[in-house]
Design a protein that fits this description.
5-stranded mixed β-sheet
Length: 672
């Protein structure tokens, strides 16, 4: 047992029995390196990372390798999901060395945390040789290593604003610029399989939400069609769990066929928002089915009894990647009997297997309507059969050895799932979804909020720890603002406002007009970074800019609006030339082109009217409601139910229309 035995992270606990004398990142290990004048190995990964497990089996469980590591180095293991701040710094360092990033991330540091060499996965012989070489070089070529470390430390200390030249641009936002963003983005579309023309393919919700927003605002049919191709292809592909619902982290090919089988909470959270919004826009029933199945998957496999959501499921079970999800045809024949042939046609199963070692990944290549017609079966009977197949195989699959569960609860990822569930409730109106969202917020307020008002990052076994990062605050605020607008409970906007105020006080850089990733009160590292660009998760600054934009309207707060506008202004150059890395910013840009609509509902039929309003796809709005009780929100001031009748008020940038008493008249004011 090593020093990881007292940790709560499943990833760190996986390494607690290694012969390597691992330490968690912290004071004890860092002081040991300084005191003993030893270089540091920082090895960073996460529990669902396949190659992290491979390197552990090959190298970290090997006593000969462990002896080398323990002799020459202080060895630190980091769960990148618990400590994204540490991960970001040393990933930047690796890229500054001219190397491609990824996980496992293995970086060598001087005793004072300055990096001088690194890499990702190393085969055991290469790793052993590297350990010996660096161990010897630290003694015989110390000055050279120290000089190299100085250069890398200087590189990673340069702010992102300076590095990318993100200067304020006060030019008026225009529809023409939005068209340019779309045109530049569309050059890299995969017009056959959807998404972007590259492999491997990752779900990129921020890109697709921008497409949805652009298609709506610009009435662009091409953008709408590409969005629909993408959403259908990934829902039909092997990247989607056709039996149990939920998406895998990415597809190793360009056709969404073969997943890397780990399932992450953050992917499914953002895709739940996307599929719910896309259904609202198009009314395509496939999107509704996917949204419902994501929620069922999350409830079944990622929900804690306390109301929080776990982080991930591994790709591997019984030491084999994907074993939990794949099928051999002979096994299907035993389970499904006479329905086997139709099932195999439906999911493209073959005797020899459509994947490796005679195994099959389930995927679809046509709609149910087309399949039913081709196979001379009624659509209703087919749907009944598909439903029965899923239930049968899900029950059978439950008997298998399950993939490993990363059961730590991360605040930011829970914020993303909160937003996804709220969006599903908004569109589909299932009371169960609202209950699930409110249960999650109750958990976050009770367990992830400190008595001093800051958030904790991670929770497990009754213990919350590590001060939260900007992504945690941004995602939770976003979820709370959304939840208020479907429940109209003041405690949610009050909590959101408290978190916004805390974030501005402790994260905001007034000089560069962006937010740091880390709290000014948290542990100091060799650099304090800002997360600007969108990736598989939208950047924390882009989410925060959206929060401030909408909260500025909700609370009539000019400071919030000003900060949001200044943040967006610094991204305009990137939006004009490389929008793929800033599509969540582009989404906000699109919203800024016309005043956001403020819709106020006052009266006893508040909930009935809200539900009716949400039947229309009208995303650029703030929705506020009251049953006629007093409210601290400025937007509700002097708003009453006229003559006791539930009344709707529509305003744009402090200019209001005449009150109405039914949703149809309200929508006429919005040109519907």
């Amino acid at each position: 047992m090593n020093a990881l035995a007292n940790e709560t992270s499943p990833y760190l606990l996986q390494h607690a029995h290694n012969p390597v004398q691992w330490y968690p990142w912290g004071k004890e290990a860092l002081e040991k390196a300084q005191k003993e004048h030893k270089p540091i190995i920082v090895s960073i990964g996460y529990s669902a990372c396949h190659w992290c497990h491979v390197m552990e089996r090959e190298s970290f469980e090997n006593t000969e390798v462990a002896d080398l590591m323990n002799e020459y180095f202080v060895c630190i293991k980091v769960d990148r999901e618990e400590r994204p701040d540490v991960d970001a710094i040393y990933m930047d360092a690796l890229q500054a060395m001219g190397l491609r990033g990824g996980w496992p991330l293995n970086v060598f540091l001087m005793p004072d945390q300055r990096p001088f060499y690194g890499g990702t996965y190393f085969p055991i012989l290469q790793w052993k040789q590297l350990l010996e070489n660096i161990g010897q070089a630290f003694t015989s070529h110390y000055e050279e290593l120290s000089n190299s470390a100085n250069e890398f430390a200087q590189n990673i200390s340069i702010s992102e604003i300076q590095k990318y030249g993100l200067l304020p641009n006060q030019a008026t936002n225009t529809l023409e610029e939005l068209h340019t963003m779309y045109q530049n983005l569309s050059k890299d579309f995969d017009k056959i399989h959807g998404g972007m023309a590259k492999a491997p393919k990752f779900p990129m919700p921020s890109i697709w939400r921008f497409l949805l927003q652009y298609a709506y605002i610009a009435k662009n049919q091409e953008a709408k069609e590409h969005l629909e191709i993408t959403l259908q292809k990934i829902a039909f592909g092997g990247i989607y769990d056709q039996i149990g619902g939920g998406f895998a982290r990415y597809s190793v090919d360009g056709e969404w066929f073969c997943p890397h089988f780990e399932k992450m909470l953050y992917d499914n959270a953002q895709l739940l928002t996307l599929y719910s919004e896309a259904y609202s826009f198009t009314k395509n029933p496939i999107y509704k089915e996917v949204a419902y199945e994501i929620i069922e998957f999350v409830k079944r496999e990622l929900k804690s009894s306390e109301g929080g959501f776990y982080s991930a499921l591994d790709a591997d079970s019984e030491g084999e990647e994907g074993k939990f999800y794949i099928w051999k045809k002979r096994h299907l024949e035993e389970i499904l009997g006479e329905d086997t042939e139709l099932f195999c046609k439906y999911y493209n199963i073959t005797n020899t297997g459509n994947w490796e070692f005679g195994n099959n990944i389930l995927y679809k290549n046509q709609t149910d309507e087309n399949f039913a017609q081709e196979n001379n079966i009624s659509i209703n009977i087919l749907k009944e059969k598909v439903h029965a197949w899923k239930n049968t195989l899900l029950s059978y699959r439950e008997k298998r050895v399950h993939p490993g569960l990363d059961d730590k609860i991360l605040t930011g990822w829970n914020g993303l799932m909160l937003k996804g569930i709220v969006d599903a409730y908004k569109v589909f109106g299932e009371k169960e979804f609202l209950d699930l969202a409110e249960e999650n917020v109750s958990f976050l307020m009770s367990n992830m909020t400190s008595s001093q008002g800051f958030l904790w990052r991670t929770y497990k076994n009754g213990t919350a720890k590590i001060q939260a990062y900007l992504e945690d605050y941004a995602s939770v605020i976003e979820g709370l603002l959304a939840l208020y607008q479907v429940s109209f409970k003041s405690k949610y906007y009050e909590f959101a406002r408290d978190l916004i105020e805390y974030t501005i006080k402790n994260f905001y850089d007034e000089k560069e007009e962006m937010f740091f990733f880390t709290d000014e009160n948290s542990e100091g590292l060799i650099a304090r970074k800002k997360e600007i660009f969108d990736n598989v998760i939208s950047s924390s600054n882009s989410i925060m800019a959206q929060n401030l934009y909408f909260a500025g309207i909700l609370f009539d707060n000019e400071q919030y609006k000003h900060i949001a506008n200044q943040m967006l202004s610094r991204l305009k150059r990137v939006l004009s030339i490389q929008v793929e890395y800033a599509t969540n910013w582009a989404w906000l840009y699109a919203h800024s082109l016309i005043p956001t609509t403020e819709i106020v509902i006052v009266g006893e039929d508040l909930e009935l009217f809200r539900k009716e309003l949400e039947q229309y796809f009208y995303p650029n709005k703030i929705l506020v409601g009251s049953k006629n009780e007093s409210s601290a929100l400025p937007i509700l001031e002097h708003r009453t139910a006229i003559n006791g009748k539930t009344t709707l008020y529509v305003c744009f940038d402090k200019t209001c229309q005449l009150p109405t008493f039914n949703v149809k008249d309200t929508m006429k004011q919005l040109n519907f």
